[in-house]
Specification:
alpha/beta, Aspartate Aminotransferase, domain 2, Aspartate Aminotransferase, domain 1, 7-stranded mixed β-sheet, 3-stranded antiparallel β-sheet, PyrdxlP-dep_Trfase
Length: about 375
């Protein structure tokens, strides 16, 4: 009997490799917190917030319990709620619309660009018109820095100014990227990011932060994250939530932030190598001039109807893939009752059928990447 050994499975995101690089530094940082017993809003939280704000070039970083809460904080701080409309792309993770619904407002969906997969600024005007026709007051827009690449923040800011919209940049996947050679963080009124472990800058659990240059907004978000506290924690001046970044997670992130720039460079090198090797067989990602990506995902497009066979072929060779996102928000059970702006979401519909992501992380060595590239090329030609 001829038994053929199964090929070893490649990690989609290799957190263990990063762990090996960091060595004992995180162990020592965590033990320091454990010994101090300052588990909630300890000194490491303030230290990390200061370092994060410096990295992003903003005045304030307000840490919190998750990337989702980082979106809720500014919505609550600005009093956005029932009767208000918030514009967001349909092709994104559900949290972008979820937070709007959580505060009682109405998400209005717009389409994305077929090349960058990010919000199409030209559709904002139509979404505003749709909201007004439904008797809603357009209050905010949430562009997403999808897959690690900055949204079109210039045109989005111009449209937001024209319609008096509050801008919340959802940088859960894109923190560390640049737009017009400036790091994400200071675009819009506030930037929200996530430290979920699989993110380019991730902790060892859940965590997030909201960054802003607005002193008053920063104070309001700090209040919201601790039950709407006023001058005293028992003086609750607004409806808030409990959303603090654990001190242990802050300690982890301080160590990870030290190597983050180097990891961004590594991700860019790996993505460039993917592009050079695959652009003749699949549609590879495009980063416009003046921008950079942190490559939270490396996402390609295949011809219609080819994705399932492609994924199966790679799986047979021990290579995982992922689909971000197979169902756009306007068709999801929990979100399909919300309106689509004028202009429709045709691109989102197409992308949901064609995109697929390959393994991507800062520690993907060239022999392993070559194995992935060879498998992709075989799978495309076989299909």
């Amino acid at each position: 009997m001829n038994l053929r050994a199964e090929p070893p499975t490649i990690p989609f995101i290799d957190l263990a490799a990063q762990r090996r690089r960091l060595g004992s530094a995180i162990d020592e940082a965590v033990l320091k917190v454990v010994n101090s017993c300052q588990f909630i809003l300890g000194p490491e939280v303030r230290e990390f917030e200061a370092q994060l704000a410096t990295f992003a070039g903003t005045k304030h970083a307000v840490s919190c319990a998750s990337g989702t809460d980082a979106l809720v904080l500014p919505l609550r701080a600005m009093g956005i709620g029932p009767g208000d409309a918030v514009i967001c792309p349909s092709f994104t993770f559900c949290a972008t619309a979820e937070v709007v619904a959580l505060v009682g407002a109405t998400p209005v969906y717009v389409d994305v660009d077929p090349v960058t997969f990010n919000m199409n600024p030209d559709h904002i005007a139509g979404a505003v018109e749709t909201a007004r026709e439904l008797g809603l007051k357009p209050k905010a827009v949430i562009p997403v820095d999808l897959f690690g690449q900055a949204a079109e923040h210039g045109p989005i800011a111009a449209a937001a100014k024209a319609y008096d919209l509050f801008v919340i940049d959802d940088a859960a996947q894109g923190f560390g990227a640049t737009y017009n050679n400036r790091r994400i963080g200071a675009f819009g009124h506030v930037t929200a990011t996530s430290f979920f472990p699989a993110k380019p800058l991730g902790c060892y659990g859940d965590g997030g932060a909201a960054l802003t240059d607005d002193d008053n907004l920063a104070d309001l978000m700090r209040s919201v994250r601790v039950h709407g506290a006023g001058s005293d924690r028992y003086d609750n001046v607004r409806i808030g939530l409990t959303s603090r970044l654990d001190t242990i997670q802050a300690a982890v992130l301080i160590e990870k932030l030290k190597i983050f720039p180097d990891e961004i460079d590594a991700r860019e090198r790996i993505a460039r190598r993917y592009n050079e090797a695959l652009r003749d067989v699949v549609t590879v990602p495009v980063v416009p001039a003046g921008m950079s990506s942190v490559w939270a995902q490396y996402t390609i497009r295949l011809k219609p109807g080819r994705r399932d066979a492609f994924a199966a072929a790679l799986k047979a060779e021990g290579i995982p893939t992922a689909i971000y996102y197979p169902i756009p928000l306007h068709r999801q059970q929990a979100y399909k009752q919300y309106p689509v702006g004028k202009g429709g979401v045709a691109v989102s519909e197409v992308l949901a059928q064609e995109v697929i992501s390959l393994p991507m992380h800062a520690y993907l060595d060239e022999p392993t990447q070559d194995r992935i590239i060879d498998a992709v090329r075989r799978a495309v030609k076989a299909g």
